[in-house]
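Task 17 of the worksheet. Students: predict the tertiary structure of the chain below and write it out as C-alpha cells. Keep your answer in the requested format; marks are given for formatting as well as content.
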Amino acid sequence: MEYELKIDNEAEKELEVSVSADEFNTFMDKETDKLRKEIALKGYRKGRAPKSLIKTKFKDTVKVNAINNLIAESYHKILEEKKWTPASPAELLNIEEGEKIKFHLRFEIIPDFGVENYLGLEIFKDEQLPIDFLYEHGEKALREKFASLKEIPGPAVVDNLITMDLEIVEGNQIKDQQTDIIIKVGDRNFPDDFNRTLVGVKKGQKKEVKISEQVYRMIIKKIEEKNLPQIDDEFAKKLNYKDVKELKEEISKKLEKNEEERIEEELKESLAHVILERIHFTTPKVLIEEEYQRILKRNNIPDSDSNKERFWEPAEKRVRLNLILDKIALKEGIKVEDKVIIDMIKTTDIKLSDGNINNVMDYLRIILTRNKTIDFLLRNAKISRKSRIISPKEATDAYRPVRH
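Model answer:
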C-alpha cells in the first residue's frame, strides 16, 4: 500500500491511496474463503465448494466486500502509522480500478496540540449579589410561576403568550410544521425579526416573515397575558407557610444558596475562558457541527442562519475546551472509578440494559472526568476576589456559558 497526502491541514486530511493488484487479490481470497465457509452449493457440502466456483458465482459480492475491507484496513493502518485520532469517519471521495486500486479518503482528526502552563491560572471571583436584589428577582419569579393567564384579542406585546400554528419553509420544502405551539413574545430563542413580527398581532391573523432563506408562516390562534398574584399572607398560606415573613425567610435562604452555586459556576466559566485564551488549535468542523446540533436540540430551536451565527462560536469553544480538558486529564492521570459512575446512575432515571451499559458508562466517565479536571484546575488556580463595578443585572448577563 502507498499513499499521498493531498490535504494536510491541522485537522483536515485527504489521502490518495493506491494498492497493488496482488495485495487486492489477498483481500479477494479472504472474502472468498469467508463466503465459502458460509454457503452450501448444490452438489457440495457446506464449506467444500471450489474457491474458483465461489469467485465466479458471487463475484460482485466478493469484490464489494473486498474493497470495503481494503479501504477500512488501509485507513486504520495509516491512522496507526501517523498516530492520528480520527474526529470523523473517513469519506470515500472516489475509487479507480486498473493495474492498481486507487481511492481518495477525506476525514478530520483531533489536532496534536500541547497543554502547558495550566496550573496557577489567575481568575477572579465575584462578590455575592445583595440579598435584597436577589429577593426582588426571586419574588418576581415566584409571581411569574403562579401567574394566571387571561385571553385577550390583542394586540400582542412583549411577554404575552401566543398559541399558533407554525410552518417553516425553505425553498419549496417544508422544514418544520407545528400545531398549537405556545411562544412568548420576545423569546430570544427565536430570531429578532420573528419576534418583531409577533408584536401587535391579533387573534385570527395570519403572518409571514422571511428570515435568511426560511419563511415563517403563522396562524395566530390565541393571545394570553399574565396576571401576577400579590405576595401576601394569603398567598404564603397557599404554599404552606405560616405567613409572608416565613415565606420571605425561606426564599432568601434558597436564593443565597443558589447565589453561592452561581458564583462557583461563574468561577468555572472564568477558568474555562482563561484556558481557551491560552490554548489554540484548529477545531474539527465535524465536532463543532455535532455540538451545534446538540445546542439546537437542547433549546428546541430550528437551524437557521441567525442561530448559526449565535451558537456556532460557543459550540466551537465547548468542543475545544473539552479536548483540552481530556488532554489535561490524561497528562495528570485524572480518572473516575466505575463505582462513582454506578452510584451516579443509581440516583438518576437512566435505564440500563446489556445493549447500552457500556455506552452509558463511557459517556458518564467522560463527563465526570472533565468535571473532575475542572475541579483540579480550580484547586490549583490563583483566585482573587473582585469588587463589583457593574450593575447586578449586567453581572447576571455577563457570561455566555462555555461549559455544558
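Marker's comment: The first helix runs from residue 21 to 38. The first strand starts at residue 2 and ends at 8.
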